[in-house]
Amino acid sequence: MLPGWISAGLRSTAEAFLTERCIVYTETQTIDEYGAPDPQLLVVASNVPCRVIKAGTPNTSAIRSEAGQQETLVQEYKLAVQRETALAVDQVVEVGGEQYRIVRIETALTERFFRSAIIVRR
Q: CB neighbours of 47 closer than 8 A, spacing ≥ 6?
């Protein structure tokens, strides 16, 4: 167990690397006037310090089927945010005009200093 002052110093250092800002949304389904599903994005948190990092090579185990039955490899990214920011699977995150969907929350080794998640482009 780390002393409080060391933990606070490490948290402060980690947050210094969060150089981007993001908006965290949750998606809800409503029905439009014609009875069709109408997805809406509701803001959960805005102006959140964050960092998006490319997570290496495309994930071959996550192949998407696109229109015309073409297969594409999914490029994963890692999102790091302040420790106080709540994240959940299937939330949408907007960073620099790009939208990403959270597909997995990472808890190993980082939760004491920042939260991290695996995200993919929408």
A: 21, 23
Domain 4-121 has CATH 2.60.40: no
Domain range list for the chain: 4-121
Section 80-89 average pLDDT: 90
Say whether pLDDT at 110 is over 70.
no
**Up-side HSE of residue 91: CA atoms within 13 Å toward CB?**
21
What is the pTM assigned to this prediction?
0.76
User: Could you tell me which residue, 67 or 5, shows the higher pLDDT?
Assistant: 5
Q: Which two tokens stand for residue 66?
A: 């696109």
DSSP reduced 3-state for 111: coil
3-state secondary structure at position 113: coil
Nearest CA-CA partner of 108 in 78, 85, 84: 78
